[in-house]
């Protein structure tokens, strides 16, 4: 059986190595290893401004993982940038939005992780809290920089949702590395998982094979084997599309 090809959207490093300001395409290796461990063939999709190249990239893969990274430019959801907004890269935003649009049009399964979930939401007309302090309710600590492979929160998952079916439970221990969060949920998306403070931690599309999670399952899958199920679900869907 030919293994499905899973495209992982890349980021851009500009401050690593001896040549400061030199652009490097990359993804954290955890994404790559999580795909391999669960039966997929990972392919890194580098950021590009060439629309024909992006179309070819999406046509080549069987499913897409939108990876984490820098904050999304608030202009993409019609807001001005506040002081709490972090590092922005409009060129990557544009690329990721094209990837979402083309992957959806081609009915490719999509998994958005952290920033990846947020970009799906923005692509569907949703918005973000530029910082959790702007929420009306008191927020828990969601930005843990150390020990990415340790769980720090427990989320609730809606019974009957895709996420509940994948994990076979409605309570799940996760890690957390974000200072922004979904504010207004985008069109045709349904929130299905929440932190104890009400922050949306997972959503899905009832109509398409789209799931977004705010946590980082790729950093957890070695110690928390339950996280394998999320990658297995994506890869199984991709295998079905390949047939």
Automatic annotation (TrEMBL):
Q: What's the domain of life for this entry? A: Bacteria
Where does the record place a coiled coil? none
| InterPro entries noted in UniProt | Class_I_gatase-like (IPR029062), Peptidase_C26 (IPR011697), PuuD-like (IPR044668)
Any one GO BP annotation for this protein: polyamine catabolic process
Offer a single GO CC term for the protein.
cytosol
Q: Name one Pfam family in it.
A: Peptidase_C26
Q: What is this protein called?
A: Putative peptidase
SUPFAM superfamilies, A to Z: Class I glutamine amidotransferase-like
Q: Which GO terms describe its molecular function?
A: gamma-glutamyl-gamma-aminobutyrate hydrolase activity
